[in-house]
Amino acid sequence: MELKINIAAILVAVFVNFILGFIWYTVLFGKLWGKEMGYDPNVKAESKVMIKGMVFMVIGNFLFAWVLAHNIAAWQFVPGIKEMGNVPNILSSAIFTFLGFYFPGLLGATAWENRSWVLFGIDAGYNLLSLLVVSSILTCWV
């Protein structure tokens, strides 16, 4: 059996996830996130640092979408999964991935690194929304 991976869907998911991250961490929660991270709002990051961060974010977004696409494709071999429809498949892939891989790490960081619960909420919210959006693109783009 061959996994069907749509590279165009992955690339669109990378772009959409990048825009989502920009909106989430600037427009919606930028000031609060910066405060919780301990950043001085009067100090602007150097262009070199910003570019490096964006490059690594795109690489991370690609790996995230590529691995999630393989995960979603692998689940298509489970009997009855296709009959469930797109919405249950999107929710399953996003929520179970979040609960199994993101949520435990965020809890650990909050407990062991003395991070705030506000920061936990911002990061958890972004990760869950990102999973839902990318899962939607990868599942619906056939």
Structure write-up:
- With about 140 residues, this protein is an all-alpha fold.
- It has one domain.
- The chain contains five helices and no strands.
- The chain has helices at about 5-30, 30-35, 45-75, 85-110, 115-140.
- The longest helix has 29 residues, at about 45-75.
- The mean pLDDT is about 95.
What percent of the residues sit in helical stretches (DSSP H or I)? over 70%
Strand content: under 5%
Q: pLDDT average, as an integer?
A: 94
Task: Count the E strands.
Answer: 0
Number of helices: 5
- Backbone CA Rg: 17 Å
- What sort of overall outline do the alpha carbons produce when their principal axes are compared? globular
Low-pLDDT windows of residues? none
Element string (H = helix, E = strand): HHHHH
Major sheet characteristics: none
Distance between the termini: 17 Å
List the domain count as a whole number.
1
What structural class results from the helix and strand content? mainly alpha
